[in-house]
Design goal:
By secondary structure, the chain is an alpha/beta fold. 18% of the residues lie in helices and 21% in strands. The structure holds S-adenosylmethionine. The site of S-adenosylmethionine has 23 residues, from helix 2.
């Protein structure tokens, strides 16, 4: 989401691909809850599969769908133990709401890559301050360069946000490089 380097316009379906280091940065924070070669992670907005490949390289089982292949995640009804994605910016709130609904019956976990100030809006309070499952915010200390050949500097900071239906207590703030 929000993957606009300076000088770039938005692209169709918000199809920005996540560099591998960004996905790798998440892994230490979910390892206790997502077991390699055991828990199945679903990537519901997989695009060309960059995030899927990075997760598989870390040893996880991953299933993947995308609207470009005819699978609208917002119509999905299957329950998942783990959902991880970089959602389309224009539908990020509803993506999170739907991912929380699909993981709740199985006590699952959701991780979404979002702008670092995404949790600041009062209209999203139900996903953060008022959401008992919100468990971690992991701020990335490096800015994401969405286009390798881009000459502009990245405009935004990003963070991983994690919701865990088994979480108890307040969320924790962490940092990752
Ligand atoms: C920001 S890209 C992320 C791609 C991939 N997750 C990654 O991180 O490299 C967002 C993706 O969401 C997909 N998308 C947009 N709306 C969708 C929907 N309703 N259901 C499923 N995928 C959708 C787009 O086709 C695009 O591939």
């Amino acid at each position: 989401m929000s993957q606009r380097d300076s000088g770039y316009e938005r692209i169709g379906f918000d199809a920005y691909e996540t560099p591998e280091w960004v996905t790798s940065a998440l892994v230490p924070f979910v390892r206790g809850r997502i077991i390699p070669r055991q828990t199945i992670i679903h990537e519901p907005a997989a695009g060309s599969g960059r995030m899927v490949a990075a997760l598989r390289r870390c040893g996880f089982f991953v299933t993947a769908t995308d609207i470009m292949n005819g699978d609208d995640f917002l119509l999905a009804t299957e329950n998942y133990p783990a959902i991880i994605t970089n959602p389309p910016y224009s539908h990020a709130t509803v993506f999170i709401e739907h991912a929380l609904a699909l993981t709740k019956p199985v006590g699952g976990i959701v991780a979404m890559l979002l702008r670092a100030d995404f949790d600041s809006a009062q209209t999203r309070n139900h996903l953060f301050n008022d959401c008992p499952a919100f468990s971690q915010k992991i701020v990335l200390l490096r800015r994401i360069k969405w286009f390798e050949k881009s000459e502009g500097q990245p405009s935004f900071n990003h963070a991983w946000y994690i919701w865990d239906h088994e979480h108890k207590g307040p969320p924790t703030l962490r940092y990752a490089k």
